[in-house]
Amino acid sequence: MMSIALYFLFDGYGHYLVPYQAVVDIYLNNTDNGEHPFHLHGHKFWIIATSDYPDAEFLYAGDYIQRDTVSIPASGWAKIRYVADKPGAWFFHCHIEWHMSAGLALAFITSPQQLLAEGYTISSDEQKLCQALRKFNKKHNSE
Questions:
Q1: What's the distance, Cα to Cα, between the start and end of the chain in Å?
Q2: Which domain holds residue 113?
Q3: Is 119 left (phi over 0), alpha (psi -120 to 50) or beta?
Q4: Which residue did the predictor score with more confidence, 125 or 58?
Q5: What are the angstrom distances between the C-alpha of 25 and each of 3, 43, 105, 115?
Q6: Helix %, strand %, coil % of the chain (to 5)
Q7: Band of the pLDDT at 42, cuts 50, 70, 90?
Q8: Coil, strand or helix: which one is 130?
Q9: What sign results for the dihedral spanned by CA atoms 74, 7, 40, 24?
Q10: Rounded to the nearest 5°, which phi and psi values hold at 68?
C-alpha cells in the first residue's frame, strides 16, 4: 500500500508515478477556510475518513462509500483510497477552476511501461498543450 500526502506533491512536478495494481491512500489536508471538491479521473475511490466523519475508517471498514469526488471541508481533511488498476495518466484536481490553475492538480501516472509496450504515444498537440500549461504555470504561480 502506498500513502501519499498531497502537501508534499505540490512541489512543481505535477505528477506522481504509481505502480500497477498498487493500493493508494491519499491524505488531503485543507489548511484554508474554503471547501475543496477533489476529483479523480478514470477511477472510483473509497472515502476512508474525513474530518466530518473521523471514525469512518473504523466504523465502516470494508464498506466505505465509493465516489470519484470528495469535498474537503474548510480547515478539514480526508483520506481516500483507490486501486491503480488502469494504466495511464489520471488527472486529480480541485474542481474549482481557478484552484486548478493555482496548482491544486496533478496526474497519477500508472504503469507507463505498459503504455509504451502497447504503442501509446503522446501526440504533438498534446505535447504543445503540456508546454503551454508549463509556461503559464511558471509565469503565474509564485512560491
A1: 31
A2: 2-140
A3: left
A4: 125
A5: 5, 13, 17, 23
A6: 25, 35, 40
A7: very high
A8: helix
A9: negative
A10: -115, 0
Task: Out of 9-23, 83-97, 112-126, pick the least confident.
Answer: 9-23
Q: What are φ and ψ of residue 76, in 5° steps?
A: -115, -170
CA angle 108, 36, 129 (to 5 degrees): 45
Tally of domains in the chain: 1
DSSP per residue, 43-112: --EEEEEESSSTTHHHHSTT--EEESEEEE-TT-EEEEEEE--S-EEEEEEESSHHHHHTT-EEEEEE-H
Q: Global pTM?
A: 0.76
- Which grid cell is 22? 498498487
Give the CATH number of the domain where residue 63 resides. Answer: 2.60.40.420
Which range scores top for mean pLDDT: 1-10, 24-33, 55-64, 100-109?
24-33
Q: What angle do CA 85, 5, 2 make, to 5 degrees?
A: 35
